[in-house]
Amino acid sequence: MRPLACRLNRKLLLGLVLTSLVSLFFTIVAAADARNLNYVPNEYIIHVQSGTSPSAVESLVNSMGASVVNKLPLSDMYHIKMGHSSRVSIFGSPSLSSHSSSLSSRIASKWAIDHIQPNYIYTLCDVPNDTGYVNQWGMKMINMPDAWDIEKGSDEYKVGVIDTGVADHPDLDGRVLPGYDFVDNDTDCSNDLVGHGTFVSGIIAAQGDNEVGVTGVCWENVKILPIRAFSGIYSDADTLLKAEQYALDQGVDVLNMSYGGYGDDSATDAMMAKLYAAGVILVAAAGNDDTSVPCYPAACNGVISVSALGPDESLASYSNYGSSIDIAAPGGDMSVENDPDGIYSTSVTTDDSTGAYVYSYAYEQGTSFACPHVAGAAALLLSYDIPAGEVTGRLLESARAPKTGTLDPYKYGAGVLDVAAALTNAGIKILQPSAGGTVSCRPTIKISLNNIDSASVKVYMDYPDADGNGVPDNLDDMSYVIINSSNISSYLVSDIITWPLDSSDCSLSAGEHSIYVKGAASAGAKEYTDWAVFTVTAKTFSPGLYLISLPYDIAGFDTGTLKMKALPENLFLNADGESSDFSDTSTSRVRLARWAPKTTSASGAGYLNYPDDLLAWQNPLDSNSSYSWYTGGSYNQNSGKYAFPAGSGFWLLVPSSEEVVLNSTYNTTKTSDAYEVSLYKGWNMFGNPYDKQITWTNALFTYKGTTKSLSDAQAAGWISTSVYYYTQTPVRGYHRLSNRDLLEAYTGYWLYARVGGVTSGDSLKMTILP
After folding, report:
1. What is the pLDDT of residues 192-238, one digit of tens each?
2. Of the residues 196, 440, 691, 738, which is catalytic?
3. Which H or E run includes 371?
4. What's the pLDDT at 2?
5. Alpha-carbon gap, residue 305 to 451, rounded angstroms
6. At a CB cut-off of 8 Å and minimum separation 6, what does 203 contact?
7. CA torsion, ordered 147, 151, 157, 161, to nearest 10 deg
8. How far is Cα 180 from Cα 162, in angstroms, rounded to an integer?
9. Strand, helix or coil for residue 95
10. Annotation says 196 is catalytic
11. How far is CA 498 from CA 190, 533, 659, 696, in A?
């Protein structure tokens, strides 16, 4: 409520309405405060119009059934409490409310209040008294002190740990359930001869605040179900499949899999699908071989794949990376044995002389130990009554950029695990432009605020950043701030900042630009940030290789002339505005190619190059079996009738001697039409044919008469969970598109379909809404 626009000469009726609204505000908030420990019950902070005297403030506060506790050391701000404690003014003179005054003057005085907020409670971050907690730098990296203020764990949930067993370590006392040993085929899982499973379990559930040892992500109550499937560092698929089925039968909520292999094991893939369909949250180690080769089960659909970080938040030297990574967590990066740069957790060894177990603590490293940080976080979110179906999304969407530099999805997936942000669901995310993206010279910037105090938000553009960490060198330099509390109301609608309101207000020069945003959570002072570096281009393709899509407007077929609306020669112009010569046979020509995923007369797939094969540009309309290629849809050739298919993907190769500009004549004007792409079993190219970003997670998939959402189609095994794009900067090569990212304008993508054929009854259709 902001009554500043009103003045004292408003009619009495309006004043009566205000009196009722102010009273209602206090009634509602007071009722909420009584149930919420984030506020002091019945106490508020008010801000009044500049120049309002303290005695006038006291009078109007008293007239609303409250009293002034004290004036705050900020201009025009007061601490008040509902209910009168005294009739004597705290400012040294009788309260004006003790004297008779006209109804109109009492009502009019309330217009002086222009902001009311609860008296928020702040607490020290909950830190355990465990003696070894000082060595657990990983817990601080994933923001556990703030998380423990909110939740420490519930015994309603259990985490299955398929590993080398879990010893009877004192710091795990009361936290381990009876399990099963598939090595010795008995129920004793305490004979952890390697110590790996005990170490993992300590990260998840070591008892916190017991003045000894370490603290688990789940400080208290969450249980470990030990499942012994390893007697050393090796196991086999048969044993693991039985262990994974046992975990399902025992009703685990989260399954920690700190193991992996490189075989394309269809049985393991099927088991992961079975567990995922049952609602188990699956977490696996990405592997320790410094390779991008997919490691299973981490690379299976529905499994959260975790890479490992060192204390400086850089990717650990041994950690796997690549398109299968979903999130990054502390895993340690030690140069010598027992290096403090490792992860510190519960350890078990054997006394050589007596054979007795020795329980202690040690440092280790590996994606095996990054994995349980995420598994423990999942159990903590469940303990906080977050539905199981939302947990994975929360973990990935709240992940943050590393402090050391650019968020490279090949290394970090969605980012660095932030458990407090996942619990509170607070955060800031730059939606447009995406990091590393390319936009026009008049881009639209969109920033999502989730439970963030909008008055605390500042957005910086093209600021000095000498160390390249994304943070402005001087946060107090307002000359680089484009949005703050003074103007954010003009750009903020439904928790989305859109800047500028009119594209004509903004024109950025071609080249690299940076944006940084920060703001504090609505309840409490925790600060959240995001940043991105993007490239501005007037749809210009410099020498290089691009995976592109083309404007929607060129799609379709002119039935009057029986000709296509546009050809590549007209679409791609050189720097002088002249048509590109695709007919040039030299190696220096501009090239355009399209992937044909299926043929009718021959097995395999391949590229169609324009203009060597005109089908690279054509989408035949009518049925004629004389042509065998199926390109982007189950269509055949009918001589003379062609229509370019909206939503196709292309490779564009621009040689070193050229620079290509997309003809602005063909900029899309269709902003509401959905488009359909036919998919075939195997890899498929598609793209975004609009000049704006669109949400690909809204895609619908139709197969054998049944239509499913993206997530349901993935769960049904129709498509892979991964979509890939190709960039030259900041990291050249393929990158995976996360579920929270958007399809960039005029950009092509790869999608893998697990089903789909050439016959109409077996076709798989993807429909994307702009």
Report:
1. 999 999 999 999 999 999 989 999 999 988 999 999 999 998 999 99
2. 196
3. helix 367-383
4. 32
5. 28
6. 216, 217, 343, 345, 369, 372, 373, 376
7. 30
8. 10
9. coil
10. yes
11. 57, 18, 32, 20
Residue 361: partners with Cβ closer than 8 Å, 6 or more residues away: 132, 135, 213, 214, 344, 345, 346, 347
Q: What is the DSSP string of 506-531?
A: --PPSEEEEEEEEEEBSSS--EEEEE
Bridge partners, 514 (sequence order): 533
Q: How far is CA 769 from CA 527, 647, 699, 726, in A?
A: 35, 11, 7, 22
| Closest listed residue to residue 425, CA positions, set 374, 375, 391, 389 | 391
Spell out the residues 6+ positions from residue 242 whose beta carbon is closer than 8 angstroms to its own: 182, 229
Examine the residue annotation and report whether 163 is marked as an active-site residue of this protein.
Answer: yes
User: Residue 307 has which token pair?
Assistant: 């890479």
Residue pair 505/440 in contact (Cβ under 8 Å)? The answer is no
Cite the beta strand spans of 553-671 per DSSP E.
Answer: 557-558, 563-564, 572-573, 591-596, 598-599, 606-610, 629-630, 650-654, 660-662
Q: How far apart are CA 562 and CA 558, in angstroms?
A: 6
241's CB contacts (< 8 A; 6+ apart) are 267, 268, 271
CB of 725 within 8 A of CB of 587?
A: no
Confidence of residue 15 (pLDDT cuts 50, 70, 90): very low
Which H or E run contains 703? strand 700-703
Residue 57 is encoded by which pair of tokens?
A: 């403030």
Q: What is the largest CA-CA distance in the chain?
A: 100
- Selecting among 33, 130, 163, 691, the annotated active-site residue is 163
Please give the radius of gyration of the chain, using alpha carbons only, rounded to the nearest integer. Answer: 31
- Is-contact 709 766, C-beta < 8 A? no
Within 13 A of 328's CA, how many CA atoms are on the CB side? 30
Task: Note the pLDDT tens digit of each residue in 388-443.
Answer: 998 999 999 889 888 876 788 999 999 999 999 898 877 788 888 877 766 656 67
C-alpha 145/C-alpha 126 separation (Å) is 5
Please report, for the chain, how many H helices and E strands are present, in that order.
14, 41
The Cα 70–Cα 79 span in angstroms is 5
8 A C-beta contact, residue 130 and residue 202: no
Instruction: Look at the block and give the residue holding tokens 């369909």.
Output: 277
Instruction: Give the SS3 label for residue 266.
Output: helix
Per-residue CA distances from 54 to 47, 60, 91 (Å) = 12, 10, 7
The structure's pTM equals 0.55
Q: How far, rounded to the nearest angstrom, does the alpha carbon of residue 509 sit from its chain's CA centroid?
A: 29
337-379 pLDDT, tens digit per residue, is 889 999 999 999 988 888 889 999 999 999 999 999 999 999 9
Q: Catalytic: which of 89, 319, 368, 514?
A: 368
